[in-house]
Amino acid sequence: MTTILHIDASPRGDRSLSRRLSAAFVEDWKAKDPSAVVITRDIGRSPPPIITEEWIAAVFTPAETRTPAQQRELKLSDTLIDEVGRSNLIVIGAPMHNYGMPAALKSWFDKVIRIGKTFTFDLQRGDYPLEPIMSGKTLVILSARGEFGFGVGGVREHMNHLETHIVTCASYLGVEESHVVAIDYQEFGDERHEKSVREAYEAVPRLVDQLIGQVCPIAAE
Ligand SMILES: Cc1cc2nc3c(=O)[nH]c(=O)nc-3n(C[C@H](O)[C@H](O)[C@H](O)COP(=O)(O)O)c2cc1C
């Protein structure tokens, strides 16, 4: 069975292009695989608080000696990690903000990439001591950007810290395969933007068809 963790990171509501695109992806998936379970986490509207010294101290305190206050400190993180653990497909609607991920999404990653819960740390492994605990997940990023040229070979490829950062972080959540569909030119609002929107909405069902048998072979039968 497919369990989709559907995350939206735009602070914008109905006007958000990345929200509409991620909704289109999940709706198409549900239409083709009705038994799929969808966990929704709207971090654009309810951003996880940024981490504090108290939070870090609680993480590094052994679970059996954590105070009630430390347990409360980690409650949201525990819930968010549980959502990741239950999913095999992570769908993230993510606007580009200042050439990277929105702060809410960074805050979400800071809360879910946690020692002993989503990764282990062992210096016996030499220069690469971190290893993810989970595996086999697929990530789909549905993105929107005001400018353009962020793809491979594009004029702003070197300025694209959105997908690269998300994919790097997601590997510590067990993501082994990732895909991106993006809408460009939002700030120009011209025919290039319209074309980009059109192409993104054409790409979404194609990507669903491509992934549906991979993520959940039963759904494709
Ligand atoms: C705070 C902020 C920062 C932005 N930074 C960038 C940027 O660095 N590059 C870019 O191409 N667009 C940038 N944009 C434009 C957004 O990526 C664009 O409006 C996109 O449609 C936002 O996604 P949404 O429609 O899902 O909210 C920025 C927008 C905001 C509000």
Automatic annotation (TrEMBL):
Keywords: Flavoprotein, FMN, NAD, Oxidoreductase. It is an enzyme of class 1 (oxidoreductase). It holds the Pfam family Flavodoxin_2. One of its GO terms (molecular function) is oxidoreductase activity, acting on NAD(P)H as acceptor. Gene3D superfamilies: 3.40.50.360. It catalyses: 2 a quinone + NADH + H(+) = 2 a 1,4-benzosemiquinone + NAD(+); N,N-dimethyl-1,4-phenylenediamine + anthranilate + 2 NAD(+) = 2-(4-dimethylaminophenyl)diazenylbenzoate + 2 NADH + 2 H(+). Its cofactor is FMN. Its EC number is 1.6.5.-, 1.7.1.17. The keyword Oxidoreductase applies. The keyword Repressor does not apply. Residues 3-203 form the Flavodoxin-like fold domain. InterPro entries: Flavodoxin_fold (IPR003680), Flavoprotein-like_sf (IPR029039), FMN-dep_NADH:Q_OxRdtase_AzoR1 (IPR050104), NADH:quinone_OxRdtase_FMN_depd (IPR023048). Binds 1 FMN per subunit. Transmembrane segments: none annotated. FMN binds at S10, S16, L17, S18. Quinone reductase that provides resistance to thiol-specific stress caused by electrophilic quinones. Also exhibits azoreductase activity. Catalyzes the reductive cleavage of the azo bond in aromatic azo compounds to the corresponding amines. HAMAP family: Azoreductase_type1. Homodimer. Belongs to the azoreductase type 1 family. This is FMN dependent NADH:quinone oxidoreductase. It comes from Rhizobium esperanzae. The gene is azoR.
